Amino acid sequence: MSFLKNGRHERLESYREKYKDFMALEREDGILECRLHHEDGPAVHGWEAHHAWREVWIDIGRDPENEVLIVTGTGDRWQIGNPEVWKTPFREWDREEQLALYHDSSRLIENMVFNIDIPTIGIVNGPGTHCELATLCDITLCTEDADFFDPHFLGGTPPGDGMALTLQRTIGPKRAAYYAYTGKKIDGHTAVELGLANECLPREDLLPRAREIARMMMERSKMTRHLTHAILSRPWRQAVVEDMGFHLMHQSYEMTTNREGALANLMKNAHRFRDR
């Protein structure tokens, strides 16, 4: 029955190389650190990176040598948005490309929630978009200048690809509606007060603190870790099943029917982002 214990999976050396342009993967004593990046600087939103994030959760989840996962960014920003990815309006995309983006957008969240069976720690190391990837982790640490805002409505698009969902399920529907409509900054201290994050720390203390928590987790048995994560991640699994497709399809419908396109909408509302 050894196949039940070991199974077939890629070794870290293999999938580290596969995703090296988008994330740096390092493991020590079972603790895997996944650092999102672009040319070793802050990660930049783009469709290739988007696809890589979807796929990496599968390989990480399949590898039994990964015992605890830490997800963080690079430098002083969590991620940099890139409006140019919408230079061609979504309604002008080939239908196969539209479908591929739909799957990438849904699987990016689904694969993280359903394919990772080990404890997870997210570090929002500065401002940036798509903080849901860190918010979905069991424990979330952040720096004071983090910003958990959802930019979609301010930019003229319904919020459908994950951040609004995490806001609804962490801070409640009333607060989520307020922050989705207004785009008001949710800094690190506010995120802790509202329940989006657990600790707000100086940037240089984030990774040491995450490693400290991870080592504490490693003191428990593998079965205890896995089954505790299963309990603690269950609300996210329920949220994805119940609402993720609904959110994403509403955003997709607007983008498909919008004649101006997401980039034109964003430029029209650029003054709303001057402090970001």
TrEMBL record:
Coiled coil: none
Database matches in InterPro entries: ClpP/crotonase-like_dom_sf, Enoyl-CoA_hydra/iso
A single GO BP: fatty acid beta-oxidation
Stored SUPFAM superfamilies: ClpP/crotonase
Protein name stated in the entry: Crotonase
Pfam families named in the record: ECH_1
Extent of the signal sequence: none
Domain of life according to the entry: Bacteria
Molecular-function GO terms, alphabetical: catalytic activity
Organism the protein comes from: Martelella endophytica
